[in-house]
Specification:
Aspartate Aminotransferase, domain 2; Aspartate Aminotransferase, domain 1; seven-stranded mixed sheet; three-stranded antiparallel sheet; 13 strands; binds pyridoxal-5'-phosphate
């Protein structure tokens, strides 16, 4: 079987440096907020082009802390994509606010800015005929937008920012899958009020456990986030000044990320080369499409997506026979998941993401995928859909 994500190969290449950085932590013993956390934050901020980086416990913590810092709570509507991992919307409901799901573009799979504008207008006009709205919409106030850079591809931030500016909404970027990607020359995590990413092992930049980070240019927000991640700490140790969380990035995870981050720019280039080989290898396969990368964007290629004409299960089974593992992200869009049944979204209400969820499949993607393996995978796809 070709590995779907090959973390072992990368560890083999970086083992000496990773072990040395881990050993240094074991020697100094500052497991909580040790010096490696600050060192990593400085490097990440410089890479992203943001003034401040705040390490945290996971991508989910990053999103949760961002919304806490922006004061999100009951009665607030947050516009987001239904074609994402549950964490994007989970943090909204966790704070008592309500997600308003907006359909995605059929080619980029990212939030459709025209649909976003319609959804905000519909909520302001309290008119669910103009765009599907969640139960209880009558009592909701539009507050913000969480665009998700799905599979590593940046959203159309110019168009999204224009909608946000027109309606006085904030933008929090869910860049959990897109760390290292660029949009019109700027890195992801630099868009919106706050950018959030994840260092879950299988993400483009992954640690060996859970980890994440937030980015902002706003010094006050960065200070607020620093307080929220340590139980709402103030300047006096046992006088906490707000409700926070235990949201710190472990020192050991920061130590693991430092050598991985040094190798990361080269890995992003390798991911790009893999994606180009896939696109070329699948270009002539009748009936299949790949995620469209708009002009001016570079994806971090967290996943390589193939859109099939149909018959996904048979294609997956045929690929497995050829030693090619596959995965499906996401077989059920968020508005149709059981947890969101109380919002009352009907099947068919957001047709683009519902169609994608039936036809999408993902093939192995990591920086160390070899040309011959990509050839094997492309031929197996061509055969399976023939
Ligand atoms: C992985 C992921 C998250 C959550 O990150 P964790 O580090 O697993 O908590 C959030 N949003 C998206 C789009 C993700 O892919």
């Amino acid at each position: 079987m070709i590995p779907f994500v090959d973390l072992k190969k990368q560890f083999g290449l970086l083992e000496k440096d990773i072990r040395a950085r881990m050993d240094a932590v074991l020697a100094h013993g500052r497991y909580i907020m040790g010096p490696e956390v600050g060192e990593l934050e400085e490097k990440l901020a410089a890479f992203v082009g943001a003034k401040h980086a705040v390490g945290c416990g996971s991508g989910t913590d990053a999103l949760l802390m961002a919304l806490m810092a922006l004061g999100v709570g009951p009665g607030d509507a947050v516009f987001t994509s239904p074609f994402t991992f549950i964490a994007t919307a989970e943090v909204v409901t966790l704070l008592g606010a309500t997600p308003v799901f907006v359909d995605v573009d059929p080619q980029t799979f990212n939030l459709d800015p025209a649909a976003l504008a319609r959804a905000v207008g519909a909520l302001k006009a309290k008119d669910p005929a103009a765009h599907p709205l969640p139960a209880g919409y009558e009592a909701l106030t539009p507050r913000g937008i969480i665009p998700v850079d799905i599979f590593g591809l940046p959203c159309d931030y110019d168009a999204i920012d224009a909608v946000a500016a027109e309606h006085g909404l904030w933008v929090v970027e869910d860049a959990a899958q897109s760390f290292g990607a660029t949009y019109k020359g700027a890195r992801t995590c630099s868009f919106g009020r706050i950018g959030c990413t994840s260092f879950f092992p299988a993400k483009p930049l992954g640690c060996y456990g859970d980890g994440g980070a937030l980015f902002t240019d706003d010094a006050d927000l960065a200070e607020l986030l620093d307080s929220i991640r340590v139980h709402g700490k103030g300047s006096e140790k046992y006088d906490n000044v707000r409700t926070g969380v235990n949201g710190r990035l472990d020192t050991l995870q920061a130590a693991i990320l430092l050598p991985k981050f040094a190798a990361f720019p080269a890995e992003i280039a390798q991911r790009q080369a893999v994606a180009e080989r896939y696109a070329a290898g699948l270009a002539d396969v009748e009936g299949v499409a790949v995620q469209r990368v708009p002009e001016g964007c570079a994806s971090a290629w967290a996943q390589f997506s193939v859109l099939l004409p149909g018959g996904r299960e048979a294609v997956q089974a045929a690929l497995k026979q050829e030693g090619v593992p596959t995965a499906v992200y996401y077989p059920r869009p968020l508005h149709l998941q059981t947890a969101y049944a109380p919002l009352g979204y009907a099947a068919g209400s957001l047709p683009v993401c519902e169609d994608l969820s039936r036809r999408i499949v993902h093939v192995p993607m990591h920086p160390y995928l070899e040309e011959a393996q990509i050839g094997t995978i492309c031929r197996a796809v061509a055969q399976a859909v023939a």
